[in-house]
Structure formats: C-alpha cells, structure tokens
Design brief:
12 helices, alpha/beta
Length: 413
Amino acid sequence: MRIFPRFSVYKMDVVKIKPSAFSGEVTVPPSKSAAHRALICSFLSGGGIVNGISASEDMKATRNAISALKNGYDEIDCKESGSTLRFMLPVAAALGREVTFIGSGRLPERPIGEYLRLFPEHGVKCESKNGLPLKISGRLTSGRYEIAGDISSQYITGLLLALPLLSGDSEIFLTSPLQSKPYVDMTVKVMSDFGVEIKETPNGYYVRGNQLYKKRDYTVEGDWSQAAFFLVGGAISGELTLRGLDINSPQGDKRICEIMKRFGADIEISEKFIRVKKSELKGIQINAADIPDAVPALAVAAAYAKGTTVITGAERLRIKESDRLESVVANLKKMGIKAEETPDGMIIEGGAPKGAVLDGFNDHRIVMAFSVAALCAKGESEIGDAMSINKSYPNFFEDYGLSGGMADVIRDR
C-alpha cells in the first residue's frame, strides 16, 4: 500500500482495491462526534486538554472555529463540517459575537432554517439568503425554543451547548419526535463530564442558565461509526478484532453489533475487544432513524447477504456530503447488485458483488463503505475521490492495509 499525505482532498485521487480478506486487529480512531462536543465544552470551560483528536478535516474545522472565536475574528470557516456549523452558530450567538459563517462543498446548501427562525425570536439578527454565508449579531436570550425533532439532532446539540451560558433558564420544546436521539444523549453526557447539567423532559430538555463549564483534561472515546466499516468487513471476509471501543458508550452506532448479529454475523463482545468472523449473512429489515451514519456500511453487509434487506428511516442521508441513498444504490448497481432507492431508504437484494469502477461522490463514508464492499468482490475495483476520507478518518487506508486489505491509493490521476 502506498503512503500518502493526509492534508487535502483531491477529486482525481482514486484507490484501487484488490480482493483480499481482513485478519488480525485494528484500533479504531477516536469518535469524531464526541470530539466535536468535547472541544467545544473545553473551549467554554476556558482550559484543559482534549486527548484523542484526529487530524481529520472536520476536526480542523471545529478547532479553527474555536480559534476564530478566541481571537475575535469576524469570519468562521466551517469547511464541509455540518457539526461545526450547527454547534458553533448558537455558541457564538450565546457569546454575543458578530461573526459571519462560511463553508464549502455541499455545506452552504445544507439546512439551517431552524436557526434562521429561532435566533431572531431570541435577540440575534441573521443576515442570509437562507444558507451560507450567514452573518449573526446580537446576543442570544433565554426562553422557550420550539423546534422540530425530526430535522436534525445537530440543532438540539447546538442549543444545548449554548443555553447554559445564558442568564436565564431555557426550555427546548420538541414539536415532533426526536430522531437520532443517541447523538443528543452523547451531548448530554459530554456536557455532564464538564459539569453542566441538562434535564430531559417529556417534551424536550430543560436547561438551567448561568452554568459554568468546568476545566478538565478529557480523553475522547473510540468511534463506533468508523468501527462499522471494519465490523462489516470482518463479517464478509476473514476474522478481525477491533479495539478501542467502549461497549457502554452512548453512541447510537454501537447498535452495529446488534444489527450485524441479526444479519447472522459471528461477533464476540467483551470489555476489551470486539471480534467478528466471516459468516453467512441473511437479509433483514433495519430502521436507521437513529443511526444514519451506519447506513453505507450496513448496505454493504446487505449486498453480501442472502435475500432482501430493507432500510428505512434514512431520508436525512439525502443532505449529507452526497445524497447517500442515491450514491449507495448507484455503486451497488455497478457491482451487479439489485438495489433501489425508496423515499427514506433502500431495498437491496443480496448477491455476489463484482469489481467495478465506482464513484466516491466526494463523500468519505461512501469511499470507506465501498472499499469494504470491494474487499470480497469478484475482480478488482477502483473508487474515485479516495482522499475524501480526510474529512473524518485520514488513516483509513493505513488501517485497512494493516487489517489485511489491499488498497493502492493513486494521487491526482
């Protein structure tokens, strides 16, 4: 496997995958989701060290956003990170900063309408054409925040991080059921680790004002979202041991173990490791409302499973780095797998994937998922936009190779 730089994304980069099998063990990287939250809590506490931050583009975006606020800059570049944007917007508003948020890739197109509606109701002026750039000014005020729970849990997380800073108490009132609740549970846990209390109510969350984030050093736990790719890879080829995961984690993607067991995967779970062996998989039904990031990996498992797999509850995947429902189905079809999109998911008929020239769609999770899909395909595969992995997991192909996979990344083709 070639060694390559980890600092940029080149759309002409490709990765060639030769059929192989996973074996040995891999230590999964720190959780990107938990790291965003820990960095912001640490910033708001005024000190402490956060250990376990990857060199991914998303982590750089949040670190740069924090640096911009610390140094009084009037512009914050969130790059392509939706988490950075939706978390830092209310934090900046709570601090009373006049600042313009910008972004790149598909980020300017991703929805922020709930903030554009809520902020003016609570003392913050917004100047935007319903997207980025977005200039905010004024200071957020406490009170009742009515917001839909089925748009994005990132709105809820952003408000939870910001509201304790305000002088009065606040309530987040959910006007529809909360989807991806495990991500909000993670927020509440990390905030609690930094000494801030959030009370869950029957209709949302109650947040006491005038709270102080406490200074402390913090270590970020392992990432179940990234572990999903290797768990699926182990289930379709060879045997693989994963380390660095907390089986008591609030991360929703921890469900990958339970779902893979329903597929028929042979998985051994202990406090110190997760071990998965090649297994005969069968099609299942999956409601992915709380685990959207795991869908590309689960779709690969479905491609190797006998029978039909139906994935529902994943409509929000259409507004990620790519339309992931469309992206996954397009690549599965290229690999000879019968698949079709539905409004909120996909239907996949398992079979014998074949090697193909695949599109990475400049989407890190699509590239990683189909690198796993190519692992046992009949013939070699080639995937475009290979270095989009830098967004979340710069070491992916190194870990892929150390686990027994055969990947050759070709720069700037």
